Amino acid sequence: MTANTLSTPGDRTAGPATAVLPPVPAFPPPRRPDGAAGDGAAPGDGGLASVHARGVSAWFGKHKVLDRVSLEMPAGRVTALIGPSGCGKSTFLRILNRMHELVPTAALAGEVLLDGADIYDPAKRVTEARRHIGMVFQKPNPFPAMSIQDNVVAGLGLTGRKVDKGVREELVESSLTRAGLWNEVKDRLRAPGGGLSGGQQQRLCIARALAVTPRVLLMDEPCSALDPTSTRRIEETITDLSREVTIVIVTHNMQQAARVSDQCAFFLAEAGTPGRIVEHGDTDAMFSEPQDARTFDYVNGRFG
Ligand code: ADP
Ligand code: MG
User: Fold this and answer.
1) What is the CATH number for 205?
2) Does the residue 6 lie in any domain?
3) Is residue 115 included in any domain, yes or no?
4) Residue 206 domain-assigned (yes or no)
5) What separation in Å is there between the alpha carbon of 254 and the centre of ligand 2?
6) Considering its fold, how many domains does the chain have in total?
7) 64 CB-near residues (< 8 Å, 6+ apart)
């Protein structure tokens, strides 16, 4: 784990905090590396991995959008992030694979551990985090003119992995199978990805994410642009995948959270304050006997 620390007045993050993100924004103040090097240990390929966020705060410029969010996302489980719009769910998800830092004014404090190893360790490359922790977005985004098979392996170049033709074909088939799309496209692998239905395109994006063998798959409202049938198809895929990859999914659909997730975290940004986790725990318990009145109101559709 890295020993970098970030001193952030006004953000009394407990324990070591890790950051940040060029260009360093005016606020919070620049990080203060203490010089100690991390051990640089990379998580091994394959195998289930847990993700542990500790004391994560996030800013866009001076706007603090997350405040000391801590959450354990256990290996081989589906964790659902729920809560009203604007409470920082997407920001939190992007912090889990180092995409938050792509926003020029963005800053963060806290730690993200992949199987105990800090993904923000300065000794590690950002591509490493993104290879181990894949992402699927709200709107399916295949390369529309590229063939289905080329879409599946489109991420390999970024990971520096070279594969020969035979391995490539196997990878296309296995990734499409895992994404629940193989039977529908096996006879038209050279057809353009853009010709598929919305639900199929989303499963193609899942296949593309899986082809680089991530240990964690992040999904940001992956069904919100899809019809109910396609949604159910993706939910089945999520359930199948959860045995082999840790999944973190943002959803606005409470029924979906109840169907696919093992545990839930309820985010809330009250009255202009930064987003926090109000309550988290076993999904059944969160829905049947939430501890916090705000959770009860949210899961019962009283706001948001
Ligand atoms: P959610 O996914 O829960 O709807 P977001 O993480 O998208 O919430 O947003 C949290 C807060 O951060 C919101 O106030 C939003 O306006 C702000 N925000 C999100 N993305 C950006 C950005 N790129 N630049 C500035 N502010 C942003
Ligand atoms: Mg969002």
Assistant:
1) 3.40.50.300
2) no
3) yes
4) yes
5) 15
6) 1
7) 11, 57, 58, 274
Predicted structure pTM score: 0.85
User: Could you tell me the two tokens for 139?
Assistant: 């709107």
Ligand showing the shortest atom-to-Cα distance for residue 82: 1
Residue 282 near residue 97 (C-beta atoms within 8 A): no
Cα separation, 253 vs 82, in Å, equals: 8
Q: Which of 111, 108, 70, 73 is nearest to 91 (CA)?
A: 108
Most informative mutation of 59, 63, 219 for ligand 1 (most atoms within 8 A of CB): 63
Question: Is 60 near ligand 1, meaning CB less than 6 Å away?
Answer: yes
Instruction: State whether the beta carbon of 251 lies less than 6 angstroms from ligand 1.
Output: no
Give the CA dihedral 215, 206, 263, 93, nearest 10 degrees: 80
- Eight-class DSSP state of 299: H
Given a cut of 70, is residue 18 above it in pLDDT? no
What is the number of the ligand 1 atom nearest to the C-alpha of 92? 6
Q: Is 206 in the pocket of ligand 1 (CB under 6 A)?
A: no
Q: Is the pLDDT of residue 59 over 60?
A: yes
Write out pLDDT tens, residues 197-221: 999 999 999 999 999 999 999 999 9
